[in-house]
Amino acid sequence: MKVPLLDLKAQYQSIKSEIRPCIDEICESQYFILGPHVEQMEAKLAAYCNVPYAVGVSSGTDALLIALMAAGIGPGDRVITSPYTFFATAGAIARLGAVPVFVDIEPTTYNLDVHGLAETLEKMNAGRRATVKAVIPVHLYGQCAEMGLLMDICRRYRLTVIEDAAQAIGAEYQGQRAGTMGDLGCFSFFPSKNLGAFGDAGLVTAQSKELDDRLRMLRVHGMEPKYYHQIIGGNFRIDALQAAVVAIKLDHLDEWTSGRRQNAATYRQLFKAAGLEDRVILPAEVQSRHIYNQFVVRVSGQRDGLKDFLGQQGVGTEVYYPVPLHLQACFADLGYGRGDFPEAERAAEETLALPIYPELTQEQLSYVVDCITAFFDR
Ligand SMILES: *Cc1c(COP(=O)(O)O)cnc(C)c1O
Questions:
Q1: Is the CB of 82 under 6 A from ligand 1?
Q2: In order of start, what are the domains of the chain with their CATH numbers?
Q3: 295 lines ligand 1 (CB under 6 A)
């Protein structure tokens, strides 16, 4: 049996009849960048997330970059984030000449450890602490970080909070949606994300009109009115085609999220029935609505062996992420070393993402767990 990590073809077949006429309409109009489809998508996404402002942009990476620019982050500033995330989270900070400061993760959720955040801020001398301007919590794998405590800490130190919700659209923390608790929220519609476009696309959510105005200006080279540049922005525009696809797919997102959550529940039953609980640590579900962008298990010692074995059995898996950011070659000059963030390092060695996409069948889920049982029985 084949169980790919992700199969987008099945999803496309189910929505093809809605998408094709809309793509045709845009082709007939020859209106490809920004415009009414983008405005519609922004309004729909703002309503879905329950946030006052939403600005469509060119990718999740650009969402982070433009959010940091809107927050006024620049050379010499420090921004605190997780060392265990996709590169873009810290890359965006460094691209603006600011310094990423890492705080280790919690071992159960893989999200930023807020107690570690408080400790890091307390231990800094006043001069250095004054250079810390923002915090980027990442809602990794589709589960919100501990935002209550995080917001308290950030308000106390007057830090801007930019949520990296690239993996977490629709996830909730105590009833609040990802990307709506901080000052700004960043989303990715990369095709493999749980809400994916037909190419690169992203979104920034904002709590204030000032931030929304600034994001819209930055998106078009800081231009307002045409050819008059108030600030230095960039080309962070989103295509009408991408916006239309995202808007159509949004109508199905809750149903897909239910499918992912149901698959996670089925995995839990199957792992329990197989008696694998000691060998495979399943993802902790501590916040109210984990949307399982990924279903990531932890396997001590034998992760790579299991990954190879599953590959031979036709089961697709992935390691998110094999090298924590503080050990990446490009960040060597930040001065971090092995041992600085033990939980991030251990996660990088032990975690493995299993197929979780909504169209998976019961037989496929059983097959995955049977293969894992076979691996440990060898
Ligand atoms: C995917 C992702 C991004 C970047 O999004 P792109 O659309 O690929 O640029 C940023 N942060 C996290 C946590 C991601 O998973």
A1: no
A2: 8-250 (3.40.640.10), 253-377 (3.90.1150.10)
A3: no
